[in-house]
Amino acid sequence: MSSSRILLVIGGGVAAYKSLDLIRRLKERGHSVRAILTPAAAEFVTPLSVATLTGERAFQNLFDLTDEHDVGHIRLARDADLVIVAPATADLLAKMANGLANDLASTALLATTAPVLAAPAMNPTMWAHAATRRNVARLKADGVAFVGPATGLMAERGESGLGRMSEPLEIVAAAEGLLGGGSKPLAGRRVLVTSGPTHEPIDPVRVLANRSSGRQGHAIAAAAARAGADVTLVSGPVAIADPAGVAVVRVETARQMLAAVEAALPADVAVFAAAVADWRVAEDASQKIKKGAGGPPLLALVENPDILATVARGANRPTLVVGFAAETENVVENAKAKLVRKAADFIVANDVSPAGGVMGGDDNTVHVVGPAGVESWPAMSKAAVAEALVARIAEVLGGAS
After folding, report:
1. A Pfam family for this UniProt protein (predicted)?
2. Does the annotation place 278 within a ligand binding site?
3. Which domain range does residue 70 map to?
4. In the annotation, is 102 catalytic?
């Protein structure tokens, strides 16, 4: 999309360090960024760091004689196409909701006529407090848009819950949505995504399954749709909402998933994020298997079809095939072997050991394995992983075309 002028208000919270990456991400997309730091924000990130990344001075003081000779707070507010408040602390949200204007940040927010996007960040108890809930409700009624907060570990030792600031790429996606739909690098492309677990019946009551929540696959489908793609999501049984703007095909078993995938082809891109069961019982019972004196039944297992390899080696192969490797040991080494064995273009590998909390959780740490080597990404939310992966897919497709 064309360059937009963004005013970033950085609040005084630990999550202010993410604002530096947010500036970089916005600038990467061609947007110009000016930043206001609250006095508390300057305790977490330096004005020099902010100025270096924005390419402009960092604004701090309402009574700066240099800026205020031409009513600088009004100029900052009026020159912006969008105002982002990140982190939006409880204090900043309270000021915004009640129209207070006792520093440069709150004054500019009161003076702007541009859309405002708030990315809350605070302790879960503060987020749940009745006063904060009232302020958020008032701001939403006033037209302020929100992104997050997310669930995860807090700065306080041992605490976790709802209150983490959204990742920079999530904020960028929300910002570009407000600015007019955002960049559409996958416009005109067909993208196929698989997500969630498969359930392989043992009898009418019991199944072979796994702990996949579908959060990562669904996030990828949503990110691809935001990037302009025509997206089909083939999903196993999950307890999360369908992504907006995506055609969803629901299946239960691996064989059903393969049939749905083949029916959705041709596609430009196929991303196989589903945790497909490797085996199923040779013959599932038509009635519930009862306990008996003979002990537990013996289950004869047979292999399920390999969906990734079938599509990657098939006649109707998409231009780009991306697989996932959920591992508990030797993560990168196993992913490298899988890349060759499955004939994929990329393998996104992650450690799903129980201690990591990836299966069913909101965060992920991935290694992208491709023909050029391994790229290890930092820990981030699954939504941020999805945005970064879709950006990489668009980059590869652009180079291929």
Report:
1. Flavoprotein
2. yes
3. 5-178
4. no
Whether 342 has a binding-site annotation, put simply, is yes
Judge if 228 and 347 occupy the same domain: yes
- One domain, residues 174 and 210: no
Q: 210, 304, 316, 330: which is the annotated catalytic residue?
A: 210
**307 marked as binding residue:** yes
Integer Cα distance of 112 and 143 in angstroms = 13
Is residue 120 located within the same domain as residue 58? Answer: yes
Q: What is the pLDDT of residues 20-43, one digit of tens each?
A: 999 999 998 889 999 999 999 999
User: Is 288 annotated to bind ligand?
Assistant: yes
Question: What pLDDT band is residue 207 in, cutting at 50, 70 and 90?
Answer: very high
* Confidence (pLDDT) at 356: 59
Does the predicted TM-score (pTM) go above 0.70?
A: no
The span from the CA of 161 to the CA of 374, in Å, is 32
142 is in an annotated binding site: no
Q: Could you tell me if residue 51 is inside a domain?
A: yes
Specify whether 217 is located in the same domain as 135: no
- CATH number for the domain spanning 308: value is 3.40.50.10300
Q: pLDDT tens digit string along 110-120?
A: 988 889 999 99
